[in-house]
Amino acid sequence: MIKVGDTLPDATLFELIEDEREGCTLGPNGFGVREQTAGKRVVIFGLPGAFTPTCSAKHVPGYVEQYEALRAAGVDEIWCVSVNDAFVMGAWGRDQRTSGKVRMMADGSAAFTRALGLEQDLSARGMGIRSQRYAMVIENGVVKTLNLEAPGKFEVSDAASMLAALSPT
């Protein structure tokens, strides 16, 4: 399992691009995790699934609400990662009004999640392999903070916890 001090795995995440911009085509675009985090401070939070109750009611909205505070604390980008496809993540992002605040990154095959060692098997609940709930602060591709939730909990991966981790001691 990934830990503080480790470099993020070299994996590709997918983001649904719905507006024309240089270097991106409309539709799902793949982005290398190491390339996208190079020279940046990024908060990445992972969760079990798009449109699921805790994820939709608390996890994503908290990061949208705390966007300005996280930016003021030196965060360049905020990513939400889930084992869903880019189309689902795009629709969920529209529903959650994440545009310009939280990048909705799809890990459809769970390659990134498995490389982190943070997968969980929810097949008995009809969901297959999914991500555990976590949040981390990444600086230049290196894990500086990792908050991993206990099963069924939502106590340490929220935006307020990440703000606290970023506050000077």
Task: State the gist of this model.
This protein has 169 residues and is an alpha/beta fold.
Account of the protein in words:
With 169 residues, this protein is α/β, with parallel strands linked by helices. The protein has one domain (12-163): 3-Layer(aba) Sandwich (Glutaredoxin). It is 29% helix and 28% strand. It contains 6 helices and 9 strands. The strands form 3 sheets. A 5-stranded mixed beta sheet has the order 5-4-3-8-9. A two-stranded antiparallel ribbon has the order 1-2. Strand 4, helix 4 (86-96) and strand 5 (103-106) form a beta-alpha-beta unit. It catalyses: a hydroperoxide + 2 glutathione = an alcohol + glutathione disulfide + H2O.
Number of DSSP E strands: 9
- Strands in their spatial order, largest beta sheet: 5-4-3-8-9
Helix-strand category: alpha/beta
Distance between the termini: 27 Å
List the helices and strands and how they pair.
Layout: E1 12-17, E2 27-32, H1 33-37, E3 41-47, H2 53-65, H3 67-72, E4 77-82, H4 86-96, E5 103-106, H5 111-116, E6 119-121, E7 129-131, E8 134-139, E9 142-148, H6 159-166
Parallel strand pairs: 3-4, 4-5
Antiparallel strand pairs: 1-2, 3-8, 6-7, 8-9
Keywords: Antioxidant, Oxidoreductase, Peroxidase, Redox-active center
Active site: 55 (cysteine sulfenic acid (-soh) intermediate)
Catalytic activity: a hydroperoxide + 2 glutathione = an alcohol + glutathione disulfide + H2O
Which terms would index this structure?
single chain; 169 residues; alpha/beta; Glutaredoxin; five-stranded mixed sheet; two-stranded antiparallel sheet; 9 strands; globular; Thioredoxin_domain; EC 1.11.1.27; redox-active center; Redoxin; oxidoreductase
